Amino acid sequence: MLALIRKPGPERSKKYAAIAEMPLFYTDASALMKMARKEEESAALRAFLGDADVIGSELLLTELPRAARRIAATDSESQLEPLLERTYEVLEKVALQPLESHLLIGAGALTEPALRALDAIHVISAVAARPIDAFVTYDKRQAAVARLAGFRTLAPGAD
Predict the structure, then answer these.
(1) The pLDDT value given to residue 20
(2) Which domains does the chain have, with CATH numbers?
C-alpha cells in the first residue's frame, strides 16, 4: 500500500526532473494523510501516484503527526499508535524540500491575503522544487494559489 510513494533517488535531481521517466508530484499534508489513513479519496490517490516520485516540504514532519493526533483524538475508530506508524511510513517515502529561511521569506511575500501561513510555505516550496508535474492537494484555497503560481493542481478522487 505505502510502497506506491517512492522517494526520489540521487539519479532524480530537480534539475533533470522534466526529462526523467517518473512524474514528480508535490504533495501537501491534505494529500499525504489520505495515504496514512483510509479516506474517501485514498484509493484514487494511491492509483494516481502509482510509481511517481513525491516531494513535499519539511513542514510535513510537523503537519502529518499533528494531523494524526487530531484525528485520533476526535475519531473513536482511529487509534493513535497505528496511525502515527502509518504516518511515519508515508513520510519516509517522500523527498523533503528543506525548509530554509529564503523559502519562509518568499512565503511571507505571497500577495494572496487569504492564504494561510502553512499553505504559503507549501506553495513556495513547490516553486523551489520546480519542475514538478503537478501540485497534489485537497485544500481548495491552497490549490487556487498554486494555480496562480503556475502549477497544475490535482485532487485525485475529488476532481
Answers:
(1) 56
(2) 2-8+21-154 (3.40.50.1010)
